[in-house]
Amino acid sequence: MNKYIGTNVLCLGLLGALALTACSDESGVSKNFGTTEEKNAFWNESANLKDWNVMKGSDIKLENGKSALLGRVSLKKSGDDLARAGIAYDVSNEDGSPTDLSQGSDGLCVSYKSDFTVEVRLDTADYASSSVDKDVPFVSLNMKDSGSESHCASWEDFKMKKSDKTDGSDVVKKVRSVQIVFVGESGSTGEFSIQRLSPYVRSDLWIGKSDGARVKTGYAKGDEGTSGTMTFFEDSSHAYYEWMYDLPEFGVFPEDYTELDKRIESHEGYYGHVIFNDVNSNPDVGFEFLVAGKTTKKNKDFIYTADVSGLWKGMCLEYESQMDIVMELVPGDSSAGTLEKKSKTMTFTKNNDMEKNCVVFADALQGSDSDILKHLAKIRFKFAKENKAGTMVGIRRISALVPENLSVKESGEFKEVKPTESSSYKSGKSFLWDGSKDGDHVDLGISGAAAGGVWTNSPDEMDTYSFGFPDDVEADDDGYVTESLVSKYHKFTGYVKSDDGIYDLDKVATIGFNTVSSKQETADISAWDGFCIHYSTDSFVRIALVTDASANKYWYAEVEYSDDMTWGKVSWKAFKNIDEESSEKIEDAIGKITSVRLQFPVDGEFVVDKFGSYDQCGK
Q: What is the pTM of this model?
């Protein structure tokens, strides 16, 4: 039996012990995200687009499409040039108390098209009193005939018409209803489609303990290794960075770590002091990286740019610092391959403890400044001497602030895999299970396999592990809770608890489905190219491809810790054989899979609301 002692997988406590603090009112200054609590059902249910109601006095006919909320609006004739009609979502708790929508999010993103101007509004009053004429914090979105992109707004962007004393950051912690109001010419009619309404989330670009000196920007164009590679900038005659553990008393000497990535790995990020030699100046000292990289020919660099405007809505650091950290966005000339002199700075304020703070680009980049994001070349982080209580600084993580549906963690390089042996049962090219509408059944597209694709959970194993599901979930006659769980919560949500921290890899908690039927016939699923899973977890989740359940033979890949809902994109090349001594390759297995299982090998909480083929991330 394969057993090992469980260890703490909660990121050494750094991510779980942060208290929520108020957002700063200063434009271009970081905001604290604090702890990540369970999000209000609004963020999950609104994706279903089913629980919106027409506001009193509005003439709107709603239609729930398969992947959008559709409606036709008739604005009433009045003496005014403009008229309004709206729909509302009751976000209050079961006892009627208001909800804090800021938990884990600094704003919201809407993907839509509309024949009218759209106002998204936050109301703290009772849901029943919702009115399109009431002055509440709102953000206005222009009429648009395409719903292919998300429009995102920070909570601070929500303003009242008649007062500047209150904005969305004041009310977002005590919201009772979210409203979508359509504004147009009095007496006009038109249509709208809301494809998605989701929060901002943090998508990790660099984690110090695992990524060394490379930021994974996702925009590499230049010579290999030039995109995202961190370098220090400093004038050693005026200031330099001294690593915390490059000191004899720690048994470590500077000459032991001559490469930056090794130093970062040994410190699990940046951790040290800035030494200022000249007290009368404010020298440049910090680190930087190219977003897209560069090409060097004949000792001349051509610096590439990237259009990050559609994906990156802000930047986040997990850090502690006795100085402000000033982030500088440096654009480039894509034709000349040079950096432009025009740049924009934003500030991560000094603090006392390790915490996650974010800056929202929309707060600082106004008018033509927003074009910087369309040809971004370099990002610099400067340690600011002019505002310090000391010189210590530690940085553990860099993340981009992105719309939730665009947050993707990739595992394994994509490569088409052709099976060496193929079952007569063959999958279709794509599939996507969406807990909001598909229940406990997955349409796998495998002809003649109608009995496959039904989600079931493994039973608790005495003295090994147990599942923890919501109290109102009921098991069926076979002991499966998946049908009840998805029916009530539109997702898999729960936790796994092992017996005294002892884990048995031969007895793992799972939720999964057979490819063909319970008789364990095999299927060729190679056409899927891999999987996309929309999830969050405080440990990790394994995806297992089972070839022989009775002999415990399977291939597995893992999606890592994420305290925000994110997409995990896993190619076939990421999968490993559980039998490390086997010479079998993934090509030998992918054509004869009997079942697919989500495994939860260690203690932790999890949420999974979508699961599909490799091409379905963000759908």
A: 0.66
